[in-house]
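Key idea: predict the complex, not the pieces.
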Amino acid sequence: MHPRKSLTLALAGLMLATASALAQPTEIRIGVALEPPALDPTAGAAEAIDVVVYQNIFEGLVRIDQTGAVQPGLAESWTISQDGLTYTFTLHEGVTFHDGTSFDAEDVKFTFDRLLAEGSVNAQKALYEPISDVTVVDPTTVEFTLSRPDGLFLFNLGRGDAVIVAPESADNNGAEPIGTGPFAFVQWDRGSRVVLEQFGPYWGDKPALTKATYLFIGDTATMTNALLAGDVDGTNNFAPEALAVFEGNPQFKVLVGSTEGETILSTNNAKAPFDNLLVRQAMAHALDRQEVIDGATYGYGVPIGTHFAPHHPYYLDLTSTYPHDVEKAKALLAEAGYPDGFSATLKLPPVAYARLSGQIIASQFAEAGIELELINMEWAQWLEDVFANKDFDLTIISHVEPFDIGIYANPDYYFGYDNAEVQSLNDQLNATTDEAERLALAQQIQTIITQDAVNGYLFELAQTGVWNGKLDGMWQNAPVEGVVLRDIHWVE
Amino acid sequence: MGVPCPMTLYLLRRFAGFVVTMFVAALVIFFLLDLLPGDPARFILGINATPEAVAALRAQMGLDAPVHQRFIQWVLDMVRGDFGLSHTQGLPVAQLIAERMAVTLPLSIFAMIVSVAVGLPVGILAAMRRGKATDTALMILVQIGVAIPNFWFGMLLTLLFSVTLHWLPTGGFVPWHEDPVAALRSLILPGLALALPQASILARVMRTALVDVTEQDFIRTARAKGLTKAEAVWRHGVRNAMLPILTILGLQFAYLIAGTIIVENVFYLPGLGRLIFTAISERDLVLVGGATIVLVLATTVTMLIVDLCYALVDPRLRGRGA
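Result:
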């Protein structure tokens, strides 16, 4: 019998058994709003993919823990050369993929050759471009050579985009993911759920859960009912407007934490009148950040004054650089040659925080004389218009990549900010591995982009999870995208 | 060579109309999808992808060929039964649609049965008690049934039967082969939610049609022959009132297959409506095109069957050949 089939049959039997015996304490049903389009984290950007597979089905050489720190993963240890250009990883022995094939240094080389190949469709390929060569030293030793030092190299290795895949199964991972993680893929009923089961021969510590089911529930009211009825045991990110139902209910745990999502009023710096610093400063003064946070995130967002996550040690609090001051905004506009203000468009992607923030900002800007026309868009259209073609005045978007201040050093990036000083500082930041120096450089960049009012800095998106009160071990913060099952367990 | 009989001609004409409808539908669907703004490859790879990665994916998805070539290829493939591969899921579109049909079809049929089982008797009863208190009460209920949006009714059902009583699941779907009873249980609430407005419409139409028929001479003749009112309505009235009912049933069934999207969302059911909705937002144009064609096919076939049923119910139509 085919192993997959016997697994499915065993599972079917298990489910029949558990349907009658109530509340098995080793299984979990997690509700998530979005269904992943496929299950291969190395061939798509959708967060929904990582939510299911990251650190559950797939593992990287290193892994990110819930504080955002880098921990050993498939590599038990590593050494870095003096010049920061050579990383030598020692791999765990006795690791197998879920289909029974064994894991060794060749799989690592295969993974990165595939990621960096000509026809690669990895969504974060650019992050790994410093890698110039991957060499197999022996089956448990692999050496990475970089073309330039990269302070974020280890962190990037821990992302879902760099998980290790096997040549035997890589092409089929979208439909039937085969990794080395503590949970193996069992089935995907499209439109409904994905089922994972604990992988018996897992090389590391066994997780407490034996089975996890992800249910795709897009509607907030439905999710509320499913949680209340006990049809799902939790969700990692719940609509903030409905959290009140669960707060103060002892049967539930509400976990409010941070994410890596800097939500900004992105401004087309290459286009008039936004190429004028005075205009951007006027807009910064016209913004009432707290009002946006209260209205668009029900108070759960954390204010930011620059493009950096507030929980990061490098973060600099610049929220008071341009305080809310309508008169100042009008004066700056007049000085810039727009005494009667101007009108512009604000293109909004289909996410609640953007649509709500857009309405609030439009009314705040109107007070200062800036008339905004709100244009609602679907994701695909937004990506093409705003992101690829740079055909926009303003937009609102959360930049969810960790440590992504480097986008300000790319003049071709969609918001079109071109500043030679920032570009040079960013090069230094990339090339430095000394922590103190890195901190100083990162804060210098933060200060410059804030003073330049490149974009309107609004808030850091919160992660608002709702879980059954008897569950423990969930991540409160989301330093990377994912719902890591490893430590989740039932108490009592 | 003899003149073909009217029935054959009727069928031939119907079939030609069917082919033309399908072709025009394919044309409209393809070019409308092609006009949609948004690059599917960019959508999949997100905002940090390099232009080379996006170009590689576009080529892999076959999006770099000229538009007329892609259209001809698409139609030819579909005629051969090949609906192509979904961009986002990498699976055959036909398989994805078939999987969803395993939910949508039983759900539609269940809703249809409930709707007929409730709607027709209510309509007949109201017609026979025309002008009396029963009629008024039933018609008020029916009016409410038409006015309540099905998704909202669904939420109310969930609150009562799932959240409060814990009798039925709030949603989701267990595949038939895994647990048929659980599968059936998960269709009960959405089925009822879908059936309520349909049953209400059916009841109204049934009542009106029957009232019209009972005013006809042949009913009076039947009464004169000594039949009771109920017998006359039952034997002669109901059959004659079936024509408008058939039309409505055909429309309703087509609507149920294509239009359950909101109810599917409320009950997180993996049905066809949700598949199309997701596919549109993800710019999975192959999937949207294939699924839409299947819907057009289902609607056209339903209408064809309804037309044939007319001929069965009303012998007068058979002779006319039109």
